[in-house]
Design a protein that fits this description.
Pathway: Steroid metabolism; cholesterol metabolism; Sphingolipid metabolism; Lipid metabolism. It is an enzyme of class 3 (hydrolase). One of its GO terms (biological process) is glucosylceramide catabolic process. GO terms for molecular function: galactosylceramidase activity; glucosylceramidase activity; glucosyltransferase activity; signaling receptor binding; steryl-beta-glucosidase activity. The chain is of the alpha/beta class. The chain has two domains: about 160 residues, Golgi alpha-mannosidase II (Immunoglobulin-like), CATH 2.60.40; about 325 residues, TIM Barrel (Alpha-Beta Barrel), CATH 3.20.20.80. It is about 25% helix and about 25% strand. The protein has eleven helices and 23 strands. The strands form three sheets. A nine-stranded mixed β-sheet has the order 5-4-23-20-19-18-6-21-22, with helices on one face. An eight-stranded parallel barrel has the order 7-8-9-10-11-12-13-14, surrounded by five helices. It has a six-stranded mixed β-sheet with strand order 1-2-3-17-16-15, with helices on both faces. The longest helix has 18 residues. The radius of gyration is 23 Å and the shape is globular. About 55% of the residues are buried.
Amino acid sequence: MRETALLILLSGVIASVRGGSQGDCQALNFGYGSIVCVCNATYCDSAGPIELPDPGQFLSYVSDKAGRRLVQSKGNIQRNSTGTGLRITLNPVQKYQRIKGFGGAMTDAAAMNILSLSPGAQDQLLRQYFSPYGIEYRIVRVPMASCDFSTRLYTYADSPGDYSLQNFTLSEEDVRMKIPLLQRAQALSAQSLYLFGSAWSAPAWLKTNGALTGKGSLKGKPGGKEHKTWAQYYIRFLEEYGKYNLSFWALTTGNEPTAGQMTNYSFQALGFTPETQRDWVALDLGPALHSSVFSETRLIILDDNRPLLPYWAKVVLSDISAARFIHGIGVHWYFDQFAPPDITLTSTHHLFPEYFLLATEACSGWSPMDPGVRLGSWDRAEDYAHDIIQDLNNYVTGWVDWNLALNREGGPNWVRNFVDSPIIVDPSKDVFYKQPTFYAMAHFSKFLWEESQRVGLSISQNTRLEISAFVRPDASVVLIILNRSKEEVEFEVWDQVLGFLPGRAPARSILTLLWNRH
């Protein structure tokens, strides 16, 4: 890390970048291409609640490599074309998928990092993610017991032979860290949060390899006592969290089932093939959920990387006994470059249109070629925005980031699998840094309400701009534009009801436009 940046911070020379209506970004440059915004217990920049512009006007929010962060401006909708060469024509008659939401994961590591700050800074951080003054996350992924972003290996039922799960017990990490933070997040949110649980591994005594890590699957066969016990583990998890007034919108069938099929896999995993996942859902997990008080809880299959589609979905969802219990398909982003979205996401949607697609995990810094935390990396913000737009334009209904907060190292992580996060905490200074990826998420999560519907658009000429358009439930329009090029791009948006919106996408920028069609 560029420690000279800390000297700048200590000397009090912190640049201000004009942000939204609730204050400026206190900017700090660590030498990774752009800036972070520094927040503490008493101050943090915020876009604040966003109100629709007056009729005939539109709002524009821009974040860019140069250092702007959700900078708001107002423009007028014009009757006549501006004459700009690039025209983006809105076609709201073409309707596609509806949005569920955006969010991140409350891992053990995220909870530990948030709680390492003072109470005031904790509140500030949670407010930035969940409140109307923040970026209004709606979805939170909750690991069921330990994962690599834990400091120890554990499940909730580590007593060998406990097939009735009489000794099932939530961990200290749940009771003292994750649950209180989830309750605080819900209290800050203007709407109900959608929690979904993902398990990394079954207890070792239920597995073929007798360990939480490495290559291993459930003993026996679907329908057998090990598979039924693992299904009941899910029910017990929902029951125990319910005691804290936390209900779950969904469960996945398990994090990255292909990882548990790999020899010498380094952290927690449970192997399934699509065939065994299909049969476990049909014979065990589906019936267990259906016959419980949690029958409305959605079930999401796969929770693994996109190249597995559409094959995995075909195997599982073509079986009516399994398909009747399933609601959605979860995808991770780690190998998206090897899996064109049209032949994976869109093909899967057309094969199984009644099942939603949800991006359930992503993070920067996972690749050995570019590992760990990069404070202020704009490239990573562009990676986020590119992937989100690509997903949304191929029928995905939401996008869930990985750890809500990590430390300067990118952990803690018991296997030292350090990655990056939109918020990095530094407890020694009682501050946290909002990364460019935080603002990349904001350009979507802050504006795309639940039930917003993607609509058609056409572009008059070839362009480097990446664009997605939505009509919100109140009939207002959101247009999100990513410009990864080094040149500013002028454009106009033609709303055939209202007129023309003149715009500029600065070099290396993310832009969100908002206007009212009434």
